Amino acid sequence: MLPNRLPDFISIGLVMGLVSCGSVPTIDAEISTTTEPETVAAAETATNSLVLGDISKNDPAGSFEEFQPLADYLAIQLAETGIDDGKVKVAPDIETMGQWLAAGEVDIFFDSPYPALSLAAEVGARPILRRWKKGDAQYHAIIFTVADSGIDSVQDLSGNLIAFDSPYSTSGYMLPMFYLLEENLAPVEKDSLRSTVANDEVGYIFTYDDSNTLQWVINGDVAAGVVDNQTFAELPDIIRGNLRILLETEAIPRQIAIIAADLEPLTVDALTQVLLDIDQSTEGKAVLEQFERTAKFDQFPTPNYLNRLEEMFARVNEWPE
Asked: Domain 49-136+254-317: which topology?
């Protein structure tokens, strides 16, 4: 077990709560009252509606509050294409969202690359744009350990446990998994902190929360953990100073927008242009601010940008070979 070098009075959960909290400004936009928050079933959607999808098991009402102003704005801007209203559907899980995209019940969905590419591969949805969620165009993952763990590189993780976030996390699963594989390591999922890890493998276990990841690393329950660079940078100095970075991955899009395979090409072209232009007007900026403080949408920076994401996705999904 790795030593705990931080003072006992520090609560990681409290620290992470303070780091992540913030206020979202309200905007002068009409929220549709015709769509009530629901997590599984929804009324039949008219063919002239543009439907935005989100996944939220615990707070579907929050998704409606954040997404409906954007849905309303897009519907107004796309009126000439035959769209007459904007709706929001909130799924409890990624499997349900996949079913809705495949059935044409959701037209556009926003998420980080791993779940978005998973849906694209499953139902033929297509990535179209990069979303600057919370003002960030891109982010990356950081693999870290405690400073005095005796672990100096990711190669030293063989025979040890590493804490990942969740199975559909981009920064907390896909990115670190890809880099471990690129280092010719053999990641193997474990279901318990007490699981045996062979010397020729790297055991990984899901924590489902960044505060859990930090606490497990600091307590010595796992040899290393993974968080995204924003989370790591926001840690108080007293915590960050007791950690050592083992590896930083390359940066990838914070989020991407994917569209359903059956969306009309003319609508796709018009929708893409509206999203690219939305940050150019005062009204559009207000809508983006409520949409999880999105700064803007833009094209993928280079022709190979999306190819690189798909390469990572394929490598991780093909393991074990």
From this structure: D-Maltodextrin-Binding Protein; domain 2 (3.40.190)
